[in-house]
Known about the structure:
Layout: H1 4-19, E1 35-38, E2 41-46, H2 59-72, H3 80-83, H4 87-100, E3 104-108, H5 111-122, E4 128-132, H6 137-144, E5 151-155, H7 160-169, E6 176-181, H8 193-202, E7 206-210, H9 225-229, E8 237-241, E9 252-256, H10 258-267, H11 269-272, H12 279-294, H13 296-315, E10 327-333, H14 335-347, E11 350-351, E12 353-355, E13 365-370, H15 377-391
Parallel strand pairs: 2-11, 4-5, 4-6, 6-7, 7-8
Antiparallel strand pairs: 1-2, 3-9, 8-9, 10-13, 12-13
Helix pairs in contact: 2-12, 4-12, 5-6, 5-10, 13-15
Bound molecules: pyridoxal-5'-phosphate.
Amino acid sequence: MSVKLLNRLEGALEQAEENGTYKHLRFIEGPIGAEIQLEGRDHISLLSSNDYLGLANHPEVVEAARDALLKYGASTASVRFICGTQDIHQQLETALANLHGTEAALTYSSCWSANTGLFAAICEEGDVILSDALNHASLIDGIRATGKGVVRKVYKHADMADLEQKLIEYQSAPSRLIVTDGVFSMEGDIAPLKNIVELARKYDALVVLDDSHGLGVLGKTGRGTAEHFGVMDGIDIFTGTLGKALAAGTGGFVTGPKAITETLIQKSRPHLFSNALPPSVASAGCKSIELLLEHPEWVQELQEKALWFRNHLKSLGLNPLEGDSAIVPVILGETSTAIKIAADMLVEGVFVTGFGFPVVPEGEARLRFQISHAHNKDQLLNAAAKLKACLR
Ligand SMILES: Cc1ncc(COP(=O)(O)O)c(C=O)c1O
């Protein structure tokens, strides 16, 4: 075996360790919740999970997954168009379409797969994709995967004047797609969807919304960023994940007109060349959607907790970024500082992640707190106090 490549990688890893930017995986012993057992330590407060509604270990969700495992087995061990999928997948897709008020839905093994498989399947030469500068990496990769002749442009983050100018510029293109995250995962801010929908109507564009961090978190009933702004019917295509607020474990989806989902079945590469969701996950997803619909008060309480935590950090002089979501970042500067403070927080019993370059711009490394309905006020008070102490 040639060792040159391995030597190069080892050198880069050593350098990252030296710079304090190495990402170490942590091992949780048992299920997640507001508190976890982590590497032999009990009662670690967890503020770095996307389990916004506390459903990841909800007894009814776990039971739904277990029942489906017993009923359907572990999987079809196949790609969907080759061997078919089980009726539980159909139930999940119907539930997702109903939740978003769209004609149809199609599931993928992750939202990463959904986003990377969407654009190349539906866009043709001359079509124009306008993408927010802070969109998630999976949208960026999905847009990059489009074929020759598809025009790909980035508009400044949430900048409606820039977006409008680009819509005007490409007014004669066959189709225009505006692509945005609902909640921006590193900033915790939300896309100005009302304005985006207005522009889309004015310039005859489609809106594609990845609401992975908005579903279950925003809006009166948790339908996400579009519900928050009252523009559910202005979104043409939703993408999202079963792996955050819905907490089924993994899985993603595209919902929208049947012409879109049927085209994806014909042409979307992650759908054509990769296995379907396990039925246990599909069943857990169905149960999570059911619970979300039954408990809009969980969503309201989550929103109140996130707002309270933001305000509390401000009252301690800790300056979180503004936003309406359950993602509350605090900017610390250098990547190594964010990683060091996250490590100190863990020593103090609070698990929160530090993000640095290249995930966020150089000099804007941050701790990202994620609030869950499962958190109680004491935990949030404690996390804020520990941050204050660690920063001292
Ligand atoms: C905005 C956004 N889209 C897509 C994804 C990918 O989701 P999944 O874990 O289902 O692949 C994420 C996950 O981090 C995300 O934050």
